[in-house]
């Protein structure tokens, strides 16, 4: 996705003089930017172009001599292959579930933390902690320490109340993956929404309260509209990270039991099956999905950004 | 009276939820100090004797593979890539905030759009490139990739931190005859330094956590800490205390960096969109 999104923000007026001194000065202004820009183009854009090209070839790394151009065959195969189609569906389900649930939980937590109470700082710290566990470690924690049917903490606690002893991961593999991700991403949503809550106009809230609005009315008519863009931002950034999730799927189920999402499938099809062409086509599909999300995300970020710039 | 009660009640709910969210980590910490036999009981043994055996096992004194090479590799990859990110992002952010290039917002959004390009989009060509140039299993190749992974975030964050430096002060310093290095050191740095530090910590966290690149591009020599952890994916008999010790030790740098950057964490994660 190399296209720059045009953000309609008042830019510095365009100067059209072509005197050497102004040109020199323009380059002097540009110079500090160039290393970073060139570096990003080389390291991120070129490989994607290569992926795009490889996606049109029938290329198994084990038979390099049989490599040939096949047009859209790889895409056809990705879209018609039952396993691959399933992984597209899994990716959508995983992303939507994790984002929605952690957004709702994050909103509830942000509302709780927006009030003053004793030890608020400590509770905030406790809540952020799950986000600061290395993702693989978090996945291992859920897989072995919490979900293990014989000695995991969940069944241990159920034991006390005489409950059943389910095999969590085998019974509901996708939900098991989702649970660990929701645990890690709720703090992220909470942080963004808390920042949104704290940027509310206090005078407006005061005025509404003086006018006799109750808590629910204030939430429904003032807080929620104000939070809308923060909710959108959380949902979109969360989607961008979770669409790409590899760690939890790889660790908890190793892509088995129908939990393989697209990133895992791409990884598996070239790293284990050596199907370079197919892997690339699947990769391109992930990119197309991401662009759709990203277009919305960029719009939200740019509207928040514009507000920021105009305020400054 | 009623309002006071309700306020305390909701405070109590917040405390309860906080504890529930923290419980898995607390339990992981407790288990890491139990013996393997006590770690794998049902019902759980809360009050079992504490021991450092899990940590001894993890650090390889019990005969297993030592985690030190992986920890050192992760440190090199995270610290070096963060240093490169700062080196590239600081001048770029300067050109996007203090002395702005034309169309600076377009440039800013180009950086952001690269962050939205999924890792798998370029993984295969990057792997093939590494393989053909003998860069597989080389930690410095990961450093380059981690630099590109974090550069957009850093540019965005630092752009917003540097924009907070009032232009009037810079102009005043210039009128007083201060040259650029002096202005940067005496005027810009003191205001922007906390933000730069937070940016560095967030880049460190993302590099330390990364698995997919490391898993595909490293092997025996350049293995990082998360790759080391994937060795625990399949159960190996009684190994819970060891897994907990390993997960905790490897997460400690991230927990420390995260709490240190707590105030700027949201801004970094939202790419500077939320302050």
UniProtKB/TrEMBL annotation, chain A:
**Membrane topology note:** Multi-pass membrane protein
Membrane spanning residue stretches: 33-57, 88-113, 125-145, 174-197, 230-257, 277-301
Q: Can you say where in the cell this protein is located?
A: Cell membrane
Would the keyword Membrane be found if you checked this record's keyword annotation? yes
| InterPro entries linked | MetI-like (IPR000515), MetI-like_sf (IPR035906)
UniProt domain ABC transmembrane type-1: residue ranges: 88-297
What's a Pfam family this protein contains?
BPD_transp_1
Which CDD domains does this entry report, sorted A to Z? TM_PBP2
**Alphabetic keyword roster:** Cell membrane, Membrane, Transmembrane, Transmembrane helix, Transport
The UniProt entry, under PANTHER family, shows:
BLR7065 PROTEIN (PTHR43005), INTEGRAL MEMBRANE SUGAR TRANSPORT PROTEIN (PTHR43005:SF2)
Family the entry assigns: Belongs to the binding-protein-dependent transport system permease family.
Q: What is this protein called?
A: Sugar ABC transporter permease
Q: Which organism is it from?
A: Streptomyces cylindrosporus
Starting at the broadest rank, the lineage of the source organism is: Bacteria, Bacillati, Actinomycetota, Actinomycetes, Kitasatosporales
Automatic annotation (TrEMBL), chain B:
A Pfam family: BPD_transp_1
Report how it sits in the membrane. Answer: Multi-pass membrane protein
**Annotated PROSITE patterns:** ABC_TM1
Residue ranges annotated for the ABC transmembrane type-1 domain, each copy included: 71-261
Put simply, this protein is called: Carbohydrate ABC transporter permease
Instruction: List localization entries.
Output: Cell membrane
Q: Which species is this UniProt entry from?
A: Streptomyces cylindrosporus
Major subcellular location class: membrane
């Amino acid at each position: 996705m190399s296209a720059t999104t045009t953000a309609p923000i008042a830019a510095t007026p365009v100067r059209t003089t072509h005197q050497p001194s102004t040109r020199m000065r323009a380059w002097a202004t540009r110079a500090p930017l160039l290393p970073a820009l060139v570096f990003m183009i080389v390291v991120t854009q070129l490989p994607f172009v290569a992926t795009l090209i490889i996606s049109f070839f029938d290329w198994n790394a084990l038979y390099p001599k049989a490599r040939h151009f096949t047009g859209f065959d790889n895409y056809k195969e990705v879209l018609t292959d039952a396993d691959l189609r399933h992984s597209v569906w899994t990716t959508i389900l995983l992303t939507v579930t994790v984002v929605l649930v952690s957004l709702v939980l994050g909103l509830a937590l942000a509302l709780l933390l927006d009030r003053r109470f004793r030890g608020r700082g400590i509770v905030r710290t406790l809540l952020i902690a799950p986000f600061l566990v290395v993702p693989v470690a978090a996945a291992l924690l859920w897989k072995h320490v919490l979900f293990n049917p014989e000695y995991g903490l969940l069944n241990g606690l159920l034991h006390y109340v005489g409950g059943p002893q389910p095999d969590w991961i085998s019974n509901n593999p996708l939900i098991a993956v989702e649970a660990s991700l929701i645990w890690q991403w709720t703090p992220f949503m909470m942080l963004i929404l808390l920042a949104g809550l704290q940027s509310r106009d206090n005078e407006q809230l005061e005025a509404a309260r003086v006018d006799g609005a109750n808590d629910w009315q204030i939430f429904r008519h003032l807080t929620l509209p104000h939070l809308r863009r923060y909710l959108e931002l959380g949902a979109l950034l969360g989607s961008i990270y979770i669409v790409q999730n590899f760690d939890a799927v790889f660790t908890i189920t190793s892509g088995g039991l129908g939990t393989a999402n697209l990133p895992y499938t791409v990884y598996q099809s070239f790293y284990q099956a050596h199907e370079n062409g197919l892997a690339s086509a699947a990769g391109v599909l992930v990119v197309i999905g991401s662009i759709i999300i990203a277009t919305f995300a960029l719009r939200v970020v740019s509207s928040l950004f514009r507000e920021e710039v105009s305020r400054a | 009276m009623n309002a006071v009660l309700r306020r305390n009640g909701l405070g109590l709910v917040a405390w309860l939820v906080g504890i529930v969210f923290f419980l898995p980590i607390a339990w992981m910490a407790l288990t890491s100090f139990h013996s393997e036999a006590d770690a794998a009981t049902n019902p759980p043994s809360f009050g079992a004797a504490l021991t450092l055996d899990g940590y001894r096992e993890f650090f390889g004194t019990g005969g297993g593979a030592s985690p030190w090479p992986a920890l050192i590799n992760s440190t090199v990859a995270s610290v070096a890539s963060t240093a490169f990110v700062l080196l590239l992002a600081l001048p770029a952010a300067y050109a996007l905030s203090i002395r702005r290039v034309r169309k600076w917002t377009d440039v800013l959004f180009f950086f952001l759009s690269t962050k939205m390009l999924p890792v798998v989009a370029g993984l295969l060509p990057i792997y093939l490139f590494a393989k053909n140039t003998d860069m597989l299993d080389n930690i410095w190749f990961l450093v380059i990739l981690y630099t590109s992974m974090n550069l957009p975030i850093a540019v965005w964050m630092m752009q917003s931190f540097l924009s907070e430096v009032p232009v009037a002060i810079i102009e005043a310093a210039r009128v007083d005859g201060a040259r650029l290095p002096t202005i940067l050191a005496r005027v810009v740095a003191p205001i922007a330094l906390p933000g730069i530090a937070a940016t560095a910590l967030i880049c460190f966290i993302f590099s330390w956590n990364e698995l997919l690149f490391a898993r595909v591009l490293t092997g025996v020599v350049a293995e990082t800490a998360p790759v080391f952890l994937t060795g625990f994916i399949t159960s190996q008999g009684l190994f819970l205390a060891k897994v907990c010790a390993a997960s905790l030790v490897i997460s400690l740098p991230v927990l420390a960096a995260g709490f240190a950057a707590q105030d700027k964490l949201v801004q970094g994660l939202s790419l500077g969109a939320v302050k």
